[in-house]
What we know:
The structure is a homodimer.
Chain A: H1 5-8, H2 19-29, E1 35-37, H3 48-59, H4 72-86, E2 95-98, H5 101-112, E3 118-123, H6 129-135, E4 139-144, H7 155-162, E5 167-171, H8 183-195, E6 199-203, E7 228-233, E8 246-249, H9 252-265, H10 271-282, H11 284-306, E9 313-315, E10 322-326, H12 334-345, E11 347-351, E12 362-366, H13 371-390
Parallel strand pairs in A: 1-11, 3-4, 3-5, 5-6, 6-7
Antiparallel strand pairs in A: 2-8, 7-8, 9-10, 10-12, 11-12
Amino acid sequence: xxxxxxxQDISPSGDNGWGLFLQARDMIAQGIPVIELTxxxxxxxxxxxxxxxxxxxxxxxxxxYTNVPGTTDLRRAIAARVSTRTGVKTTIDxxxxxxxxxxxxxxxxxxxxxxGDTALYIDPFYATYPGTIRATGAVAQTIKTQSENGFQPTxxxxxxxxxxxxxLLINSPNNPTGxxxxxxxxxxxxxxxxxxxxxxxxxxxxxxxxxxxxxISPRALPHMAERTMVIGSLSKSHAMTGSRLGWIIAPETMxxxxxNLATHTTYGVQGYIQxxxxxxxxxxxxxxxxxxxxxxxxxxxALGIIANFPSLKAIPPKGGMYIMLDIRATGLSGKAFGExxxxxxxxxxxPGESFGQAAAGHIRIAMTVEDTKFANALTTLCxxxxxxxxx
Amino acid sequence: xxxxxxxQDISPSGDNGWGLFLQARDMIAQGIPVIELTxxxxxxxxxxxxxxxxxxxxxxxxxxYTNVPGTTDLRRAIAARVSTRTGVKTTIDxxxxxxxxxxxxxxxxxxxxxxGDTALYIDPFYATYPGTIRATGAVAQTIKTQSENGFQPTxxxxxxxxxxxxxLLINSPNNPTGxxxxxxxxxxxxxxxxxxxxxxxxxxxxxxxxxxxxxISPRALPHMAERTMVIGSLSKSHAMTGSRLGWIIAPETMxxxxxNLATHTTYGVQGYIQxxxxxxxxxxxxxxxxxxxxxxxxxxxALGIIANFPSLKAIPPKGGMYIMLDIRATGLSGKAFGExxxxxxxxxxxPGESFGQAAAGHIRIAMTVEDTKFANALTTLCxxxxxxxxx
Lengths: 391, 391
């Protein structure tokens, strides 16, 4: 008996981009100390105050089934937060809680696209995007961007791709590139969606980690609320990756149908985690800034170090937890470089190729280890790349 | 902008079977005291010892991303449990942890069926089954059973339906009927799957709640392990409904692909909940019997009460948390009866029609409130039905 063709086709190359990450995890399991600059896992753990709130809720009896779209209190808090941050009136009927941002991404594409519809996404991309789209039976199609212009999609490329598509997935602040979309880019994206009648799926899980400018949510642009689904999560903003708590903001009718989808795919989210999430959101900006601060600091450390190695080129991140390094001078692919680095120096990074063709010859460095260790690892990495470039 | 046709089609009638349940919840929200005999929510809460184990894990730092198929310790414990209970060699490579049994049901169908394939299920059925299948893009097709022969599917009906199908979903002990499949029925099901090359998806979430005989897992029948996916969960066995912790047992290759599907749909399950689940499983049989005991007791109470009302007919449950009552003598549908009962006596049940055509004219009574309250509510219900029958 074979698994269905469709799940075999989620990662058609057999490589879903996680190979190097898993190799590093295997080495760690064997007792080899590896410095992981791979996934977007904050090095701080979830704050004990949040965990205590969770425990109080659980002991208080919130251990049963919850309403599928989420608790009223949490939905209300998120609606208020979105209203405040974007100026767009948002009610609990626009909010569905999901077991993590990944589940929200999958559900949003189920809601936007039928089987066989084309779903667009921007290259470079977060590693799960194409597989997520393919898992829904939609056709995953990239719009390539260029390292040279900060990975902003162009009007021409958007327009060409949009004519036969049903949805467009964007992510600003961006993983893996650290870029944020300019007001002009966002305007072009909004016009493209309107001209071609696309759903816009806007993954904004890094919206509290901005190092330059301010966050633009495209749902706030004129006439966009009715065709935009925003993906949110507490993973990055509150160091709650393992709590799997995310949400979708969408038009009311969409939320109704997404709730029915959730009834048949997950049946709701843990009540005590939703109560912990509510507590976390109620801690306000100061808490979020505290979680974001280490990444801002390490970004500056990293740019300082990389500047000492002229053959390497960093794309200065404007937001998020990552830095993209152009290592094309080494003559190696990101994957080959990553494998050599892991083997020789026990430092793990993500190859640019895990994030699409546009990031080939790059590596993504997660700024997720303690400052000194991070600085040392990055210096070793840069020296290694420079030595290779000079060979 | 409209939601995709496919999510609009998950519940084509617009009624997903939860209408009466939601009506009761609305009344409760308005402050009206309603006795809920609707969903399979144990009236005991999750044991504090399990919640304390969860909190210790969370405070201990298990708050980050986990391996997508689950923690090694939990997978190993479940594999050992399945091996012991069924005699079938089961390793961690046969186990994937899911965020609840519902997610496992959805994933198993994604793994078994391509879009357009026919997925069979037995009528009466748990309310989410058809929508779950439709959410995957497969075609949901029922095999009807009869109240009169204990809701066992017949060889002829299985065989007829199987010729054009790709999978068969069964549930024993059964929700909503309380029936368990006999050894003969299980043998017929196994032969049908082998003769027609079907995947068997066996939902066994009530396997610790058996009031007569012993549990038969069809995966243990000859040549069935290679084509069977078993759905498990701690919701019912450990009163952990709100913790959303389930699993799939399947062949290794299927687990590999299901893990890739999970990477793109949920991205793993909370580590601290997996640790709590491990703690719960380690409490052993005595704990599980303690959780199951109230339902066994209420089953006997219920059969005693119903025997006093000759116009009503209960199907004595062999397992699970529910009792099906044949109220056709009232001349009402299950839905009309349920609505009238809720309106007049503020007692909420699930109409048989929520579970398919074969259960029309029945109601499902969840035995999930404290004994005396349960006995009183059931007596009121039976008297109400009897009065209607005599009108």
